[in-house]
Protein: Thiamine diphosphokinase
Amino acid sequence: MSQKPTRAVILLPGAVNFEAVMASFGDWFQDAMVIAVDKGIDKAEALVTLSKTREVAVDFWVGDFDSSRRLEISPTLYREKVSYPVEKDEIDTELAFSLARREGVDQFLLLGGIGGRLDHQAALLFLPAQYPEARVIHTDGVETLYFLEAGKEYHFTPPVGATVSLIALSDLCGINLSGVKWPLVQHDLEIGSGLTYSNEVITERGITVSMKAGRAWLYLLPADSKRSL
Structure:
């Protein structure tokens, strides 16, 4: 990379629909730092094939490598391997975030990590709360989450019929949500409430969402997805 990147792609363990990811986020792979987290290195070869612009798939391979010990990974797929002990205070994804932040990164695209162990899933959901100044997107190519900052207005254009959920990570104040079956106007929400789950996009113009205070994910799931509880 000729200049310091401001974006990082984090490859996590778990399945990823790379064709869908490239269709929505393909521009990230032109200039972003790429960090593989432990077994997430298994996506490196697919990344090189699909991106077509990267000479080396992964800039940093980070973790304690407990889940990747049986993988055979060519050293040509990564630039640097950063090892940590199994017994540590942080999860591997936190280590990847910290490394990227030290390099000046403030935008993150997390690939994978959906549908795995519940404790790790919870850790990933709350991870952006540690980095409120960072923009974070988390997707596996089917389910996509966008971390929302208070005081900003966001516009998304998912297809009509897509599922929309607002996942509160704290109490939320002054939520505005339009373009959905059940809109909200200046609504306050306590953390843990299910009121903002399983809404539905009703217009091709897309949806608009904002809130005055709090932290939350906006969750999107295509209407044709087979995923359910």
